[in-house]
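Record type: monomer structure entry
Structure origin: computed from sequence
Chain ID: A
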Amino acid sequence: MTTTIAYDAVAGLTGTDLGWSEWLEITQDRVDLFADATDDHQWIHTDPERAKDGPFGGAIAHGFLSLSLAVKFWTELLDVTDVTTKVNYGLDKVRFVSPVKVGARVRMNAVVAEVTEVAGGYQLAVDQTIEVEGGSKPALVARGLYRFYA
């Protein structure tokens, strides 16, 4: 569910748990498109038959594919109105904790860890956890940095 707030309420978001995004299935087509976009065609991602005998028992998504989905999930969780610009400013820390098998469903939780005033706006440091449905460990954890300018 999307939390929608006005720009003037951003400063008060520290500690806010924005909840969970919707589930998204990781398809082989999505993995193959990502492989084409990044020129990373390693067989554990793009050769499902060979991957069956590999270390994960099947094809897995690229870690950076899972990470890139944070952008999609983030927009599902927070909408700030009354801004001129929204910027994905970067990442402070990323860990790929467990693989995401093709066919699995993933979603993201986001907690606003810190809000800092920057020239012309605010920067949010957001603790993000992408989980695999039915998994015992998250697929990845990251601290994303997002800026909002009025």
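Annotation 1: The radius of gyration is 17 Å.
Annotation 2: The first strand starts at residue 3 and ends at 6.
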